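lol ok so funny story. i was supposed to be doing the assay writeup but got distracted and ended up predicting the structure for this chain instead. priorities right. anyway since i did it might as well share w the group, maybe its usefull for someone
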Amino acid sequence: MELDWDDLKIFLAVARGESLSAAGRVLKRDPATVGRRVSRLEEVVGAPLFARSPQGYGLTDAGARLMAHAEEAEQAVTRGTEELAGTTGGLSGQVRIGAPDGCANFLLPQVCARIAAEHPELELQIVALPRVINLSKREADLAIAVSPPATGRLTVQKITDYHLHLVAARDYLDQNPPIRTLDDLSGHSIVGYIPDMIFDKELDYLSEIGAEAVSLASNSVSVQLGFLREGAGLGIAHDFALPYAPNLEKVLPGDVSLTRSFYLVRHAGDARIERMTRVADMLMAGLKAEIARLEGLT
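and the output, tada:
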């Protein structure tokens, strides 16, 4: 049985997008054409690859088995293309980086701009999402995570630690009762995550200071920082974000000092793709240096 690489690309797009329309957008093809190509591939392999339902296209057992081989083929084609292009010098092509919005807003723009300046033919895309990036659906090529994933054929590398503190605007502190101990936090307005939208246990900061109620909440770190800058209350903020909010002051830094880590996550097979490896190395070094620089300013 001989499989056409173009059919496999279509299969991968449908498997990752879970619909013909999503695959069509990625491939820039009409969904009906995508559907016909999927049906043709199923005829070739002699088995249904997708379970169709109103919710979308889910992989069957046969589809799941083909998925592993299709991804290996995809990686082989990418490696071959890069070798022929000669990637020992400047890098080219597209690399999509997924990250939680705090990292995406306050760290990645500087880091990616420097990488792009060195490699002008490289196209870097940042996907900022207040949730875990789904690499299996190829939402991104590389992902920054706040805790290492426990499942999947993934390569996980620790980038560096970062720090967070309880902060508030100077105006808020001047206009409200003094805070000398953690007990004094009672009665103050608290800014934080929407409790049922905390997508990683490492982000449950307020439980560590005993805060039971959040007065102003968002699933976005940037929005939370906006609340704090406006003097809306107290909240946990990344030290690397504080240079962007000079009117914020640390509160009880001796009692409330949190340490978290960033991890770089990618498909295990991508480690053999030179472009991905080189971008991953530059990304890790750049993030580590940028965190150290910004935290040094505070």
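The CA atoms of residues 92 and 121 lie 5 Å apart. The chain has three domains: 5-85, 93-160+261-296, 161-259.
back to the writeup now i swear
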